[in-house]
């Protein structure tokens, strides 16, 4: 089954393997936990306004 989602919690809960497109033509593959720990999620989603924090595993607004 293929699931396409921007919901990281859903992806962590229901998938065995994640394909993460970074928006710049890059692709990272692994478990959600691996991609978080290796910093791929942060690099794919971080902007000037939002950062991904690995420790609590959540997105945070930058002030």
Question: Could you describe the 3D structure shown?
Answer:
With 63 residues, this protein is α+β, with helices and mostly antiparallel strands. 30% of the residues lie in helices and 25% in strands. The protein is built from 3 helices and 4 strands, in the order αββααββ. It has helices at 8-14, 32-37, 40-45, and strands at residues 18-21, 27-30, 50-53, 58-61. A two-stranded antiparallel ribbon has the order 1-2. β3 and β4 (58-61) form a beta hairpin. It is globular. It starts with 7 loop residues before the first helix and ends with a strand. The mean pLDDT is 88.
Range of strand content: 25-35%
The helix/strand order is: HEEHHEE
User: What helical percentage do the residues reach?
Assistant: 25-40%
Q: If helices are DSSP runs of H or I spanning 4 or more residues, what is the number of helices?
A: 3
Which class do the helix and strand fractions yield? alpha+beta
User: Which oligomeric state applies?
Assistant: single chain
Largest sheet: 2 strands, antiparallel
- Looking across the biggest beta sheet, what order are the strands in? 1-2
> What are the segments in which pLDDT stays under 50 over at least 5 consecutive residues?
none
Instruction: Report the radius of gyration as a whole number of Å.
Output: 11 Å
> On the 0-100 scale, what is the average pLDDT?
88
């Amino acid at each position: 089954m293929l699931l396409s989602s921007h919901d990281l919690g859903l992806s962590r809960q229901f998938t065995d393997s994640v394909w993460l497109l970074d928006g710049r033509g890059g692709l990272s593959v692994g478990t959600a936990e691996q991609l978080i720990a290796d910093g791929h999620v942060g690099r794919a989603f971080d902007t000037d306004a939002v950062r991904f924090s690995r420790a609590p595993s959540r997105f945070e607004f930058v002030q």
